[in-house]
Amino acid sequence: MDPRHLFMDQRLAGKCAYCGGVPDTRDHVPSRVLLDEPFPPQLPVVDACAACNQSFSLDEQYLACFLECVLAGTTEPCDVQRSTVARMLRELPALRSRLAASRRTNEEGTIVWQPEVDRVRRVVTKLALGHMAYELYPRHEDPTAVFFAPLSTLGESQSGAFEDTPFRDIGVWPEIGTRAFMRTVIATGQESMPTPHGEAWIVVQANRYRYIVESDESKVRIVLSEYLACQVAWE
Ligand SMILES: [Zn+2]
């Protein structure tokens, strides 16, 4: 069975993964701006309305560039690793100067980057809604918590808890036919990184993007560029 085409898709067709409105388009989750070419085959797609699809693209572009500049320590196009980002920095001087302005030196003389938190939160929430729609089913309630921080700033126990998937002996099992269920019974061919309890992060592109959806439907975790840890929860 092709995991991109499950019966649940027919049942859920007709709703934007983000707002629940009538979809007129399909959206890649994650968006390609967060990945490098060549793009992975079988990139997940969800139904989306054109308004949602467009409303996130500038924020996604911002986040892709911000992360890459933080990792490179500069907004110089020739010094960033991702060629897509280097091109955007060259072609979008306004974005580049906005990013350059977010680079500061703190009292200790350390260089810090101040993200535009609302934009990052919008992107992280959107990605989580997309993963939830693709793996389980669309949720349209606002999440109760949206967290994001550099992986390196998480303490040892926090980072362990983030990387791990807690084992549950009771709880809700994913519906038969959802991708979350399929992933527990078949190999999807995607690269995966098992946690100590055997559940696996789904690696969309190594070093660029991985995520995990907890099958009790309460949490999505995402790691961007092996730098930014994100968690979105509905509790
Ligand atoms: Zn929508």
Helix-strand blueprint:
Blueprint: H1 7-12, E1 25-28, E2 45-48, H2 50-55, H3 57-72, H4 83-91, H5 93-101, E3 103-105, E4 111-113, H6 117-135, E5 145-150, H7 156-163, H8 179-185, E6 192-194, E7 200-205, E8 209-213, E9 219-224, E10 228-233
Antiparallel strand pairs: 1-2, 3-4, 5-10, 6-7, 7-8, 8-9, 9-10
Helix pairs in contact: 3-4, 3-6
Bound molecules: zinc ion.
Zinc ion (ZN) binds at residues 16, 18-19, 21, 48-49, 51-52.
Counted up, domains total: 1
Low-confidence stretches: 167-172, 193-198
Largest sheet: 6 strands, antiparallel
The tally of helices reads: 8
Q: Strand share of the residues?
A: 15-25%
Overall geometry comes to globular
Helix content: 25-40%
The ligands bound in this entry are: zinc ion
List the helices and strands in order.
HEEHHHHEEHEHHEEEEE
Give me the Rg, rounded: 18 Å
Question: Biggest sheet: strands side by side, in what order?
Answer: 5-10-9-8-7-6
Mean pLDDT: 84
Distance between the termini: 32 Å
Quaternary structure type: single chain
* SS-derived structural category: alpha+beta
Number of strands: 10
Describe it.
The chain has 235 residues and is an alpha+beta fold. The protein has one domain. Helix content is 34%, strand content 20%. It has 8 helices and 10 strands. It has helices spanning 7-12, 50-55, 57-72, 83-91, 93-101, 117-135, 156-163, 179-185, and strands at 25-28, 45-48, 103-105, 111-113, 145-150, 192-194, 200-205, 209-213, 219-224, 228-233. Strands 5-10-9-8-7-6 form a 6-stranded antiparallel sheet, covered by helices on one side. Strands 1-2 form a two-stranded antiparallel ribbon. It has a two-stranded antiparallel ribbon with strand order 3-4. Helix 3 (57-72) crosses helix 6 (117-135). The longest helix is centred in the middle third of the chain and has 19 residues, at 117-135. The radius of gyration is 18 Å and the shape is globular. The site of zinc ion has 8 residues, from helix 2.
